[in-house]
Every structure is written in C-alpha cells, then in structure tokens.
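Most newcomers find our protein records easier to grasp once they have seen one. A learned vocabulary of local backbone shapes supplies the integers on the structure line. Here is such a record, shown just as it appears in the course material:
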Amino acid sequence: MPPSPSAPDLTVREVMRPAVTTVERTAHVAAAAYLMKRSHDNALVVLADSSSRVPVTLVCDGDVTQAVADGRDLEQIRLVDLDLPVMVGLSPDTPVPEAAERMLQAAVAYAPVVEDGALVGLVDLAALTRGLLIGRRQDRLADARP
C-alpha cells in the first residue's frame, strides 16, 4: 500500500467538494440567500451565465448579511450590484499549501476550482487547513519511525 501524501503533496483535488449549487450574477440577492439555505452552503459560485460553467466570483453568507445591514432590499438588488471579492481561482492540481497561501493573501475564505475553464469544485480554508494538518500528522509519524 503506497504511503499517504504529506501536506506538500496534497492537492486541492483531494480536499475540494463539488460545487453543486451555483447562481448567475444577475440573480437577486434573495435568490442567492434562498439557494444557500436550501443547499446548506455558506458560499455559492457565481457563474457568468446559465449556459456556462465559467465562474466569475463567489457570494457568501457574509455578503448577504452585509447587504441586510446596509438596508438593501434583497428582492430588488442583484449580485452584480454587490461589492463581491475578486475571485481566486484554483486548479485541482494546486498544492494545498499554495492554495491556502493564495487565499489568505487575497483575504477570501472560499475559492472555486476550475479545470479547462470550467467549474469542477469549491474549496474553503477549513478544508485546506484539514489537509495541512493531516499532512503534518503524517510527516510526524514518518519521522518517528525507526
């Protein structure tokens, strides 16, 4: 049985989850909030349009909360009207430490995973942290072996 990969060897592919729930950038914020609740997701990938799987940004529960706090009408305002973060797109083959570093530098908690220009998954800092800890634990066990 081959050894488990260590933290530097883990890739985003191994810690990401499928990005099942997406939303178009012209959708109302209320629709995004409904989709988040229904899918039990804290973030949705925003697509360029309904026919593509090309992500343009993300919307997370904090963006919806900010819109509410600003007194905006969620039934009237659209996602394109929000100040959403610059997207940090990752490849499935991006090493976990590099992905975590890029996301931390951009101050984002979620990143879409894109392969051949199409959305294939979503990764968050919690999943990357778990990957780093698993790799670290495996490295320590390997160092302890005689």
